[in-house]
Specification:
There is one protein chain. With 457 residues, the protein is of the alpha+beta class. The protein folds into 2 domains: 64-230, no CATH class; 240-456, Jelly Rolls (Sandwich), CATH 2.60.120. It contains 6 helices and 16 strands. The protein starts with a helix and ends with a strand.
């Protein structure tokens, strides 16, 4: 038995050796790359502290203003696009409804007219109220920073006016269609009246209701536009002088580029007073001998211009509204020594004119010109230790006559301007600030605010 097992084992061993030699060339073992499952101490990376989060700098006032401007511009563009879609979508929908009804009902055009009119009234009323709410929401959130809000409001008002005109046209067409349908008995079939519909009288009342809603919307839009005007600078002005309160220390010194030795002048400015007392000084020029050479004043509801003293004056009454919210008012004072003719202009219109005012007088040079205050000449002028002014100069001011409010577009010419020119300067939506004087030029002539007075945009 052992004899046959031994040869069998030898044969199996021989077969294994042959197989190993056969596949020796096909098997390659790569010992070049070694992999380790353990991390040695030298390879252990030291933990690095995580970087602190970036502390973004606080937004500056200008960044906030630009962000508000961008948001306001986007909101205004959305409102304009929405108002434009009202006209296109609603008129297209109305045309489709009429064509559909005519094709579907045939002779029963009375039902089509009734349904179209009712749907038009409901859709237009809902759209207009929604648009008005969006406009008011945009007005409250935009504040005083929307540079182009007034122009966008004009466009929106024009679109609503177009919608109003289109609605009237469609109402006329519906009335003609109804008359044509019911005047042809051969093609008209009696249609049962809807329980909620009262016939032709109800249809006319519905269309009149739509027109009434549009008129009311237009009126409210004008109020919104007026509110936007009050929050923005007039006549294309880009900055204004703010006088926050009445104080002897709050005023603005004006340093003209040329001497004020004048025999005639025109001075104009935009002003929005917060409150007007018995005497509120807007502009004053004088020297030590006579502090009241030129004065442009407000007194309750009146405006006054004095030349050479308070005895030579011209007064215009009823040009200022003491009650209600502050509004921008354009004032101009004109004087010529040749005939002593002095006049006052308010809102681009001549409101008062007086002859014989300081006739033959020449305004002296070397005085001081200031806005929002007057020198009363009570104090001697001596150089101050700080070098910022005159000692006792501020003490010579009276807080009771100080101006509180906003002022812009201050210009002065050494001649009498034509009436057409003054009217153009007073346009609220114009570009009057681009027409500067040759004695005082707004935005060019040096003006130094004192106290709490400051330039604002």
């Amino acid at each position: 038995m052992l004899h046959w097992r031994l040869p069998l084992a030898v044969g199996v061993w021989s077969v294994c050796v042959c197989l190993a030699l056969t596949y020796e060339d096909d098997i390659e073992v790569n010992y070049a790359d070694t992999y380790y499952n353990e991390i040695t101490e030298e390879e252990t990376p030291e933990p690095t502290p995580s970087a602190a989060p970036c502390n973004s700098p606080d937004l500056t006032k200008w960044d906030k203003i630009f962000s508000m401007l961008e948001n306001s511009q986007m909101r205004e563009n959305m409102l304009l696009q929405y108002a434009d879609d009202i006209v296109k979508v609603e008129m297209g929908s109305l045309r489709g409804e009429i064509l559909k009804f005519v094709a579907q009902y045939g002779g029963s055009c009375g039902v089509a007219v009734e349904t179209a009119g009712r749907r038009m009234a409901l859709q237009l009323e809902a759209r207009l109220r929604e648009s008005l709410l969006r406009l008011k929401f945009g007005d409250h959130t935009s504040g005083a920073v929307e540079g182009n809000s007034v122009g966008n409001s004009n466009n929106l008002e024009a679109m609503l006016q177009q919608l109003l005109s289109t609605t009237r046209t469609q109402a006329t067409r519906l009335a003609k269609m109804e008359t044509s349908c019911f005047s042809n008995p051969g093609t008209v079939k009696a249609a049962p009246q809807h329980p909620e519909v009262g016939g032709a009288g109800h249809r006319e009342g519905t269309l009149e209701g739509v027109l009434a809603v549009l008129q009311q919307t237009r009126t409210e839009l004008q109020e919104v536009r007026r509110s936007l005007r009050l929050r923005h600078l007039p006549a294309g002005c880009e900055m204004a002088l703010l006088f926050p309160m009445r104080s002897r220390r709050i005023y603005t010194s004006v340093i003209p580029d040329v001497p004020l030795s004048l025999s005639s002048f025109t001075v104009c400015l935009w002003v929005k007073p917060v409150g007007v007392s018995n005497k509120t000084v807007l502009l004053s020029y004088g020297n030590r001998r006579n502090p009241y050479e030129i004065q442009l004043l407000l007194s309750h509801s009146s405006a006054l211009l004095t030349i050479g003293g308070e005895t030579h004056l011209v007064e215009a009454r009823g040009v200022v509204k003491p009650d209600g919210p502050p509004e921008w008012l354009h004032l101009c004072g004109v004087w010529s020594s040749e005939q002593g003719l002095a006049s006052l202009w308010a809102g681009g219109k001549k409101v008062a004119s007086t002859p014989g005012v300081a006739e033959g007088h020449i305004l002296p040079d070397g005085g001081s010109l200031q806005l929002g205050q007057e020198r009363n000449g009570c104090c001697h002028l001596t150089p101050s230790s700080s070098g910022n002014g005159m000692a006792g100069f501020e003490a010579g001011f009276d807080p009771k006559v100080a101006f509180a409010g906003t002022m812009t577009g201050v210009n002065m010419w050494d001649k009498v301007l034509p009436e057409e020119k003054i009217s153009q300067l007073a346009l609220q939506d114009g570009q009057g600030c681009e027409h500067r004087g040759n004695i005082v030029m707004w935005g060019v002539t040096e003006m130094v605010p004192h106290g709490g007075a400051q330039f604002v945009n």
